[in-house]
């Protein structure tokens, strides 16, 4: 790919999706409005959120303030959010989407993803929002419902037909789940969002999905840090930002370790969604389009592959080996 290429062109709409966006997971509610505003000032145009993050009202306020102050126009932004597991029923997709759209204060969403291929028992928003993985009352045990993916995807496609979201996609789907979806979908997913970092590059998945004309967005580009509080299975690994291999490449390139990790993904035509609350790091994380890694750098990074997945419901204490 070109060093300067900064967007992916999505199937069906030909919309230009920025390859470097801003992730909203674990953005605290009391900081979200200002953080989004600052990120827009720093040049970010893609914002990746979700119902499950519980901060969409505040994110919407940050976007609205930036538009009001003339930093951007709505059409300059690419807003991504996700359908949570408890709203997979064809009878609940539209209402869930509309709540998220109104919370964000937007007339339309650029890309709406199914967060996990996991249909959980419905929880009404007035009972708990975001609903999380467990029911509102009772034992901490996930409860499934009979909401087939073909019906859920059909309701997602209806959002496209009604002009509410321009693109639809998926997150945390494996090849088997994607292949099933491709047998009946009217609109192919525009993107797949999955965990990708040098400890877990997912080479074959990436190659196969890209061959289907579906773009990939990586989350957790910096590795294990975000999952320390979630994982109970004892998996540990050195932080990638402090790994000697990454640090040496960064020194050679006169870059930060974060820039090396992000550039590694972008050179695979994978979008990234880093998050930072520091203005200088925000700007630094976006500076990944004017330079490149060489073959030696890539070979060294390839040696870090451990097949080590951190975002796995089965390791959070749920009886759900989703990726097995």
In summary, what is this structure?
With 324 residues, the protein is of the alpha/beta class. It contains ten helices and ten strands.
Which CATH C-level class is it? Alpha Beta
Can you name the CATH architecture? Alpha-Beta Barrel
The largest sheet, given as strand count, sense and whether it forms a barrel, is: 8 strands, parallel
Q: Roughly how many Å apart are the termini?
A: 33 Å
- Cross-sheet strand order for the largest sheet: 3-4-5-6-7-8-9-10
Number of helices: 10
Percent of residues in beta strands?
A: 5-15%
Shape: globular
Tell me the number of strands: 10
Alpha carbon gyration radius: 19 Å
CATH fold annotation: TIM Barrel
Specify the CATH homologous superfamily.
Answer: NADP-dependent oxidoreductase domain
- The run of helices and strands is EEEHEHEHEHEHEHEHHEHH
* Percent helix range: 25-40%
Number of domains: 1
Q: Stretches where pLDDT falls below 50 for ≥5 residues? A: 229-234
Structural class determined from secondary elements: alpha/beta
Keywords: Oxidoreductase
Binding site for substrate: 115
Protein name: Xylose reductase
Pfam family, one: Aldo_ket_red
